[in-house]
């Protein structure tokens, strides 16, 4: 039983999608943390445990840690996008190596040349 391996293009695309989803998750988490901090700071009285100052410090630290994630994540996303671009370019090169483009912009496999001359070729896009 053989399993079909994903193409480099599929892997690159999934990587970019995963990193974008991760960034969205961190942005949502940051907004949630900032909202909790605002609520803690606006709450004039003591919280249930009587340790509001400690909770505020902890929330501020969590916000800073979340913000610190964005720069490395942007670098990873940039590298993944570059890899995706290379995969796209490589895929186009492979297409050009396997066949040629005819004047109307349709791709023609080298094996279709006989049918093209006989008027039977309909044009396939890859």
- Radius of gyration, in angstroms, nearest whole number: 27 Å
Distance between the termini: 27 Å
The pLDDT mean sits at 78
Helix content: 55-70%
- Helix count, DSSP H or I runs of 4 or more residues: 3
Write down how many β-strands occur, each being a DSSP E stretch of 2 or more residues: 2
The largest pleated sheet is described as:
2 strands, antiparallel
User: Which consecutive residue ranges, at least 5 long each, have pLDDT under 50?
Assistant: 101-105, 112-122
Strand order of the largest sheet: 1-2
SSE string: HHEEH
From the helix content, strand content and strand pairing, which structural class follows?
mainly alpha
Shape: rod-shaped
Note the beta-strand portion: under 5%
Describe the structure in your own words.
By secondary structure, the protein is mostly helical. The protein contains three helices and two strands. It has a two-stranded antiparallel ribbon. Helix 1 runs antiparallel to helix 2. It is rod-shaped, with a radius of gyration of 27 Å. The two termini are 27 Å apart. About 13% of the residues have low confidence.
